[in-house]
Amino acid sequence: MTPPKMTWRAGTIGVAIVTVALALGRARSQPAPATDKQPVASQPTLAALEKSYREEPDDRKRMAIVRKMAALPDSSEVLSRVVSGDSSDDVALIAAYALRRGAIGRVATLLDGRLSAGQRDPGERERMFREIERHQVFAEGQNLPRFMREAPPVFKVATRDRGRVRVLAFGDFGDGSERQVRLAEAMGRMHAKAPFDIALGEFPENVSPAPDAL
Q1: Which has the least CB within 10 A, 145, 168, 177, 203?
Q2: Is residue 13 part of a domain?
Q3: pLDDT tens digits for 115-174?
Q4: What pairs with residue 200 in β-bridges?
Q5: What's the CA gap between 78 and 84, in Å, rounded?
Q6: Do residues 108 and 176 both lie within one domain?
Q7: Same domain, 135 and 178
Q8: Is residue 102 domain-shared with residue 180, that is, in the same domain?
């Protein structure tokens, strides 16, 4: 009876050895697991970018370098030199826009800190919010008039027919072309047949009827 028992144990050990060998083989064949730590590319310094800028003859490439410099802290002096000395107006304007964003952005940040630090009644707080928003718009090169930044107060419209209000609204003021003139004249003719109560938009000055007809 002993030999069969020994044969069973040897077979079991053999199977175990083969299993371990296969597992080790698979482990060796698998690529190493990726780690979260990836090598970080070093960012160019402001001095290195300025050196590249001075050595670059191509206007478009200098513009790209100026944009990179503008994204770095303490770049205002370098950008000022670009505005004063670059041979291309386009490159100089890119630097000027970056200086404007930075300068007005700092003012908006100061105003925001002032708003956060003090207590104000709702009216004064709303005024500060509007000023901060206005500076943020200026920083991006926009200068929207006040009526486009603030909703008008609620108003009532006196109409001939109290059951409905006729509104003329269009989104684009046009490009001054002949098509814009024809469209404005068509709206004027519609107003002459069935007057509009409210008109949102503007007409070219050379269109008849006169703009104040709506």
Answers
A1: 145
A2: no
A3: 888 888 888 988 888 888 888 888 887 776 666 667 778 877 676 666 678 888 876 666
A4: 169
A5: 10
A6: no
A7: no
A8: no
Closest CA to 111 of 89, 91, 95, 133: 133
Distance CA 187, CA 213 (A): 11
CA distance 3 to 15: 18
Structural domain boundaries, residue 54: 46-149
Specify the length of the chain in residues. Answer: 214
Q: Is the domain of 142 the same as that of 174? A: no
Flag the least confident range among 34-48, 82-96, 110-124, 125-139: 34-48
Exposure on the CB side of residue 93, measured as CA atoms within 13 A: 6
Shared-domain flag, residues 86 and 130: yes
Helix (H, G, I), strand (E, B) or coil at 76: helix
d(CA 201, CA 212): 12
The token duo for 93 is 């304007």
For residue 71, with 0-12 CB atoms within 10 Å meaning exposed, 13-18 middle and 19 or more buried, which class applies? Answer: exposed
What is the spatial distance between Cα 64 and Cα 43, in angstroms, rounded to a whole number? 15
Residue type at position 140: E
User: CB under 8 Å, gap of 24 or more: what pairs does 85-90 form?
Assistant: 86/62, 88/59, 88/62, 90/59, 90/63
**Domains contained in the chain, number:** 2
Q: What is residue 198's three-state secondary structure?
A: strand
Residue for token pair 């486009």: 148
